[in-house]
Design goal:
This protein has helices at residues 3-56, 61-69, 72-82, 88-100, 103-111, 116-129, 145-157, 161-170, 181-189, 191-203, 210-219, 225-231, 237-250, 253-262, 268-281, 287-290, 299-311, 314-323, 329-340, 343-349. It is an all-alpha fold.
Length: 351
């Protein structure tokens, strides 16, 4: 085969492949549309039956027979779309009904499937109606990110001490689970997260400590004080900045002393975080320590220093008004900008 014939053959194959892809795309759309039309009446009846369970606590015999007779995937869809929006007794009753009509074993079978779509569906259903304690924890290490993220959501609904410890260990790899899924789940668990998180921060530093510090700052419990002060001395600047935010969220005399020293840090991000933390604490004697930051060469430091001064009330405003006549044009400019900000904007701009 000469080069021209080879090129024509490759182009022919590409055209065939493109035609097959188009046919598959439209074929899938046609089949999906046909299935939705076929399921339309059953879907409406199923929703009414489930809402009746929420209202009365039990389905009628006719409704139970209807739900048992629905296609499995339609049952899964109805429960996963309705249950997350229901709370309290109604949600518990739907969970009981799901077990009675045999939906939990179906979900567990889906969660063991080789198809990631089925595993995703199975874990999602188990997270809404309960079950899966022997299956889902292993899916925290699933090869598909969507399944891993759904398993984390399930873990948030089943917060045993072992599960929480596992979630804390996952924090350095949060990008593998969706950037915010693990952190948000731990923040929702709050009280149960504190002890595992303290133990983790006592033994980790550097980049591995950064996401844990973010979660700890969101909880802001005094139990984090010692680890926050230790990590304020970490060699990594991003860790020191996060530790400053945590120390500022908790407060204490010792924390104020550390934060006042951190406004002289070599890294601009750390200086800005320390100033913001002092402003958040409302420690007005620190106004004299923060005021020199209005002349800092880094915009983030000047802006956070000025916003912190504004947050300190009258003492901070006094330094900002002095800044208006400062010889340094940067200090005069940032003072004017922050003094002119509306109250709501000033609060929003703070670190």
């Amino acid at each position: 085969m000469d080069p021209v014939q080879l090129v024509r053959f490759v182009l022919f194959l590409e055209v065939i492949a493109f035609a097959c892809a188009i046919a598959a795309f439209f074929g899938h759309a046609v089949l999906s549309n046909a299935r939705e039309r076929r399921w339309a009446v059953a879907t409406a009846r199923g929703r009414r039956a489930l809402m009746e369970v929420v209202r009365t606590g039990r389905p009628t015999k006719a409704d139970e027979a209807l739900l048992r007779g629905l296609p499995t995937r339609l049952k899964v869809r109805l429960f996963t779309e309705l249950v997350p929006s229901i709370s309290g007794q109604g949600r518990a009753q739907l969970g009981v009904l799901a077990r009675e009509i045999g939906l939990v074993p179906v979900a567990e079978r889906l969660a063991r499937s080789r198809s990631w779509r089925d595993r995703l569906l199975g874990v999602r259903l188990l997270a809404t109606v309960g079950g899966g304690q022997d299956i889902v924890p292993a899916l925290l290490d699933d090869r598909h990110s969507g399944v891993r993220a759904e398993a984390v959501e399930w873990a948030g609904e089943h917060p045993t001490p072992q599960i929480i410890e596992r979630l804390v260990e996952l924090l350095p790899d949060t990008d593998c689970y969706g950037r915010f899924v693990v952190r948000d789940t731990l923040l929702r668990l709050r009280a149960g997260t504190i002890e595992p998180l303290v133990r983790y921060l006592e033994t980790h530093d550097g980049a591995a400590a950064e996401p844990a510090l973010d979660v700890a700052a969101g909880i802001a419990h005094p139990a984090f004080s010692a680890v926050a002060l230790r990590l304020c001395l970490d060699p990594d600047a991003p860790v020191r900045a996060r530790a400053a935010a945590l120390a500022g969220a908790i407060g204490s005399e010792e924390a104020v002393g550390v934060l006042q020293r951190m406004v002289h840090d070599d890294d601009a991000g750390v200086r800005a975080a320390a100033a913001a933390a002092l402003g958040r604490l409302g420690h007005w004697p620190s106004a004299a320590v923060i005021a020199p930051l209005l002349r800092d060469r880094a915009w983030i430091v000047r802006s956070q220093g000025a916003l912190a001064l504004r947050g300190l009330g009258s003492p901070g405003h006094l330094y900002l008004r002095r800044g208006l006549t400062d010889d340094d044009p940067f200090a005069a400019d940032i003072s004017r900008q922050v003094l002119d900000l509306p109250e709501s904007s000033a609060e929003r701009e703070r670190w």
